[in-house]
Amino acid sequence: MSDAAEPILLVEDNPSDVALTQRALQRACVANKLVVVEDGQEALDYLLGGGLYADRDVSKLPAMILLDLKLPKVDGLEVLRRIRANKNTRRLPVVILTSSKEEQDLAAGYDLGANSYVRKQVDFAQFDTAIKQLAAYWLALNEPPPKVRSQ
User: 5 or 112: which carries more pLDDT confidence?
Assistant: First the structure.
């Protein structure tokens, strides 16, 4: 899979979904560290070097972001909007991983530049398979975009 030095950023406020995602990634033998943030503001702070992450080297970006939509503080669509508006993060692969079945969320996610939209499966076996496929594609098969160079 991709360089283990590049973490996967999971933006998820539901502890059960965090645990399921961690378990599925482990079962898929993903070596990348999983960084979990629990709300949209914390995700933006992690990516842009604010708040608790003010000392983080923001040039070290995650390999991919798994982004829930229904989040406290800043919702997932706004997080995506800000990721795409920032020159350093706009190329990051963002997979919306949500339970939302709303067509407006699906449309808005793609309109704002999501790379993929995956509905969380209720059944663990289906969820496990979906996470394995996501990891295989985004971390192994997909050619990542070039890093944005600082000027």
Answer: 112
